[in-house]
Amino acid sequence: MARKEVGKKPDAMDMLLSPSRGLLGGDEDESLRNHEVQERFRKHVDEKLQRWSSAHPSTGAQAEARRRRLEELSIILLDFRKLREGVTSSRRTDAFACEAYEASVLLSIHASNDAQLSSSLPPLVSSLHPAPLTRCSTSATDTHSDVSDAFARLDISPAPDAPTCAFFLTLHLLHSHLLPAFSTPNTPQTPASSSSAHPPLSSFLPTLFGHLRTLHLPLPTALTPIPQLSDSHIRFLLSFYYALLRNSYTSLARLLSPSHLPAPPPAVTALITSLHLPPTFHPLATLLLTHSAAIRTNRIWPVVHKAYRFPPDPTAWLSKGLLFEFEVEQDQRAAGSLERKERKERVSESWEDEDEEQDGQEARRAEAARRAEAWVAERKAAR
């Protein structure tokens, strides 16, 4: 098979350079600054995703196979970076541009590629999603421009739906504000509100409200004791913020449970399917999992330790409060051994089905308890 590849002409799409590296042969019409080339390149990348998904099934894979799977996905993400550069350099803000960035965000979260996530999520939320809304607002208020100018500004691309905008805004503010702030130790020398590694917590609510206005999303009618607004993701974001702010490990454990984590909106679920990602992939849960260990160590544990001096044996009761139940569930989902089902949609055909589900829950709790016991024992031994 390898001999057949020797001397094979490289695919023209693979030979395209990132716009920041110049033009291949100096041909502007065959560069990623050209909209038609961008769309051909996107189809080419989709073919790569199909081959990747077929070669690396997500279900039943061992740890080493999952590692190789994510490594190859990170290589495909480099093609999405090329595409994003082309979209940006051509000043494209239509539905195609939004999809390119949204796909990059979802794939980056699935691959745990923070560098790609950091370069794709902020422009999506701050520039691309508001662009159609801004154009509509400008056209409605500008009564002095002539007809030709109005047609030049006309864009038939629909604005992203509100749930999709709220979903990616939630991911953005978690990734840029809350998770970095609450993953660091809270000490007098380095309080979370003054670290240079992330924006100050005092800017979180003003930033959130500013984005909600820009995206024409409804503002909450109340913030405490329970945030009152219609969108489930923004409501979760605010509840998560207040739970972290109050160092309430019981509230965190409740929020990070299947019944409280909001499911992705329909448009995002459709995009996940089109990207050949596993149907069990939950972007919000996956992003939260990347910081759960640091939050456990630096935020939850000091509260538990102070409240109980030092938890007595056994400590299995801490498995939920220390987020181990959440961690076990996400590990099983990543391994393809746990199918996500909403409780309201779950219909058991027999008592045996219910028994299997109960056995699965008990097994997850037992594994979470085992991890909690070992984790606490390590801290006792280190005293």
TrEMBL record:
Q: Under which name does UniProt file this protein?
A: Pre-mRNA-splicing factor cwc22
- Taxonomic lineage from the root: Eukaryota, Fungi, Dikarya, Basidiomycota, Pucciniomycotina
Biased-composition ranges, Acidic residues, are: 350-360
Q: Where is this region: Disordered?
A: 1-29, 333-371
| Biased segments, Basic and acidic residues type | 1-12, 338-349, 361-371
Q: Which residues cross the membrane?
A: none
Signal peptide range: none
